Every structure is written in structure tokens, then in C-alpha cells.
Amino acid sequence: AASEENSVDAEVTSFYNLPVYTPQGRYLGVVEEVVLDLPNRRVGSILLARTSPKIVEGGHKVAVPFRWIAAIGDIIVLNHFPDRVAAQKRGRETEEPVAA
Predict the structure, then answer these.
(1) Contact yes or no for 85/62 (Cβ under 8 A)
(2) N or C end: fewer C-beta atoms under 10 angstroms in the chain?
């Protein structure tokens, strides 16, 4: 079991800094964090940084559900992503990305 855990750890860390593209082949961002779903022992989502302001308003970080990933190799290709993501203002200080 220990060797299985190590291979999963190696697989997850290999996601870091991979460029992520939309189904249409547009650059979206790079993987900054991998969010684990510990109760189910799987990857829950990936957090993207350095996002394209053409797709994500303000170039904010955005979380993408792992189930939206179509392929992982030298890059990550998604099988679903909104055409545009706008920042929803919450109070004066904080903003949270939402699908537009």
C-alpha cells in the first residue's frame, strides 16, 4: 500500500505548473494547487493561477473540478469550462470568481 500512496503523491505533484487549456484550445492558466477530497481519497479540484484575463476577469485564481479534466499529459485539457468567468463582488474587499 505504501508504494501505491507514493505513486499517487508523485502523480499529484506532477500536476503543478502544468498549463491548462479549454476544450477549444484556449490557454486558461497553470496549476498552482491540487485540492484533495480526502474522505473519497481522490483529487477534488485544481486551483489555477496566472489565468488568462481574456477568460477569467481580472486574471483571478479559479478552481476547476477534477471531473472537468479530459486529458493530462504535458498539458491539461478540460472537457468543460465557461466561455467567460466574471468576478462577483462580495463586500468591498473580497471578490470571488463565478461563471458568467
Answers:
(1) yes
(2) N
If you search the block for the grid coordinates 505548473, which residue do you land on? 17
Whole-prediction pTM: 0.77
- The three cell numbers locating residue 7: 505513486
CA distances from 64 to 29, 53, 54, 82, 90 (A): 11, 16, 17, 11, 20
CB 48 within 8 A of CB 64: yes
pLDDT at 92: 44
Alpha-carbon span 42 to 23, nearest angstrom: 23
Q: Measured between alpha carbons, how far is 66 from 78 in angstroms, rounded to an integer?
A: 9
- Mean pLDDT for 82-91 is 76
Report pLDDT for 27. Answer: 98
